[in-house]
Amino acid sequence: MTGPSDHGQPIIVVGSDPLTARNVRKAADGLGLAVSEVGALDHVDDHPSAVVMSLGPEGALDVVASAKQRWPKAMVVGCLPVPDAKLWEEAENAGCDAVTTRGAIGKMLVARLPAWLAEPGGPRLRLFAMGDIAGRLGLVARLADTPLGPIAVYHLAGEVLVIDDACSHAGAKLSEGEISLEDGAVTCPEHGSRFDTRTGDRVRGPADDPIRTHRVIIQDGVAYVGLD
Fold first, then answer.
1. Which has the closest alpha carbon to 228: 118, 145, 142, 124?
2. Tens digit of each residue's pLDDT (9 = 90 or more) over 141-193
């Protein structure tokens, strides 16, 4: 195992596939990052820039979800031994920010990891593939447990909008209220306050304060919410 690099947070490789590890090390050398190869995440103390997870072993998707929860700002990458469309989709749904094959993992890291770590891309949480919400308007997702707290996700006029799923007045779940497809205002189901989902501004009381909105990133047909 190599130690942490002075040039940045290490890339952690989970699993025992030598081709994956070799390709990651080659990419990491070019990026000035160290690589830590581990069999499990239990005793990892580093705060990684990326976690590369071999998707072949049983239980790998549970490890993906655990890695994303533990290091929300790290790029979690699923690595397939061979192309597998079903496993690819399952890995994305489990929390992988990117999925690739072990032969392409090095090129993918070189191409995408610097942008992930730098603004304006930055650390992010995967929401869904844009194709999954084609034709759907209004509320498309509610996530109760994220590093940002509970969030509600809307799709309006081609825009993906993310807000805190809590009214600033009394904390009711805004995702349970009505959303106007015309002006993008959501109505609190408890006391009727209204908020602009694009800006977070209060449109109508009794709430006095706005709600928090979050930065959305669309990359390669996938929607993410920024964690900054």
1. 124
2. 999 888 889 999 999 988 999 999 999 999 999 999 999 998 999 999 999 99
Q: What's the token pair of residue 85?
A: 């469309």
Q: Say what the pTM is.
A: 0.59
Q: What are phi and psi of 194, to 5 degrees?
A: -125, 145
Residue linked to tokens 């890291």: 109
Domains and CATH numbers, the chain: 11-118 (3.40.50.2300), 128-226 (2.102.10.10)
Contacts of 152 (CB under 8 A, 6+ apart): 139, 141, 142, 162, 163, 164, 165, 173, 174, 175, 186
* Residues of the chain with confidence (pLDDT) below 70: 1-8, 43, 119-122, 228
Residue 146 CA to residue 172 CA, distance in Å, equals 17
Per-residue pLDDT tens over the stretch 68-78: 878 877 889 99
Residue 74's SS3 state is coil
Other residues' Cβ atoms within 10 Å of the Cβ of residue 197? 24
